[in-house]
Design brief:
Number of helices: 11
Strand order of the largest sheet: 7-6-5-8-9
Largest sheet: 5 strands, parallel
Oligomer: single chain
Helix content: 25-40%
CATH architecture of the largest domain: 3-Layer(aba) Sandwich
Mean pLDDT: 96
CATH topology of the largest domain: Rossmann fold
Distance between the termini: 14 Å
Number of strands: 9
Radius of gyration: 19 Å
Bound molecules: phosphoric acid mono(formamide)ester
Number of domains: 2
Structural class: alpha/beta
CATH superfamily of the largest domain: Aspartate/ornithine carbamoyltransferase
Strand content: 5-15%
Order of helices and strands: HEHEHEHEHEHEEHEHHEHH
Shape: globular
């Protein structure tokens, strides 16, 4: 069994069989992560570059750890410590890195489309670790994995993505992946944070978080992206929390069975209260653990493909 593409650029258009194969493979690696020696020789001899032009804690460390667990050689590129700071172009940077014989490039970039562009200028397998406001496919996959792990299925579940949808690449990858796997997907947030025409992706739109909580099995809570000027779309963070914040009181009143996800980083007291972020409804750190297994699966499946 192998994936239908040698790159993972997004979940839009990825066949159900591919997603299922990644999830099944991740389940095997999840077991490896519970062993005393959490390492397999699967990608021995492969060289992988983590090309991060944007900040990251979870995705970057998770990819690096996944590479180490698979015995690959890992190189980390950080813009602030690179010759990009001396004016070297993105294309020249990539061509120079590739001249050192790398097999795979994991890229995070502030501009949408950069992973796609990389497939044109590089022979390596490309994995998108988040491009602008476009997609973050491995986050979508680990969210799907975590929902199935906790709920036992995805088919027919009502899953709502709540928060700053307009600035979120996690939202799009979730929408595409969840719908392919048979979930009923909705989004919830203030009108100013819901992209116009999002219904055309086959999602329901809520502007009332209490209704969304009552009608869904899973709520994936997204961060208000203050660094992307999200603050200008709402009157104040205090009011956002009042009308859309996920609090224990709201959950207890409307839906005690709901599962709460958050991709992180969290704005405590804005989109989610600390009580919920650390409480019994959420699986936020399980998502992080599962992220390593899911990324091991993607690296393994792409790294062992016959290119
Ligand atoms: N969820 C996520 O992408 O987090 P980081 O920005 O820390 O990688």
């Amino acid at each position: 069994m192998s994936l239908s593409s040698r790159h993972l650029l997004g979940l839009n258009g990825v066949p159900k069989e591919d997603i299922q194969l990644i999830l099944d493979t991740a389940r095997t690696f999840r077991e490896v992560l519970e062993r005393p020696i959490k390492k397999v020789p699967t990608l021995q001899g492969k060289t992988i570059v983590n090309l991060f032009y944007e900040n990251s804690t979870r995705t970057r460390i998770s990819f690096e750890l996944a590479q180490k667990r698979l015995s690959a050689d890992t190189i980390n590129f950080t813009t602030s410590a690179s010759s990009a700071k001396k004016g070297e172009t993105f294309k020249d940077t990539v061509r120079n890195i590739e001249a050192m014989k790398v097999d795979m490039i994991i890229v995070r970039h502030q501009s949408a489309g950069v992973p796609q562009y990389l497939t044109r200028i590089s022979k390596a397998n490309i994995i998108n670790a988040g491009d602008g406001l476009h997609e973050h496919p491995t986050q979508g996959l680990l969210d799907i994995y975590s929902i199935i792990e906790k709920k036992g299925r995805l088919e027919g579940l009502n899953v709502c993505i709540a928060g700053d949808i307009a600035h979120s690449r996690v939202a799009l990858s979730n929408i595409f992946g969840l719908k392919t796997m048979g979930a009923n997907v909705s989004v919830c947030g203030p009108t100013t944070m819901i992209p116009a025409g999002i219904e055309s992706l086959g999602v329901k739109v809520y502007n009332n978080i209490d209704k969304a909580i009552a009608e869904n099995n899973v709520l994936n809570v997204l961060r208000i992206q203050l660094e992307r000027d999200a603050g200008r779309r709402i009157p104040s963070l205090r009011e956002y929390h009042q009308y859309f914040g996920i609090t224990a009181e709201r959950l207890e009143k409307r839906n005690k069975e709901i599962l709460i996800l958050h991709p992180g980083p969290i704005n405590r007291g804005v989109e989610i209260s600390s009580e919920v972020a650390d409480g019994p409804y959420q699986v936020i750190l399980d998502q992080v653990t599962n992220g390593v297994a899911v990324r091991m699966a993607v690296l393994y499946l792409l790294g062992t493909m016959h290119n």
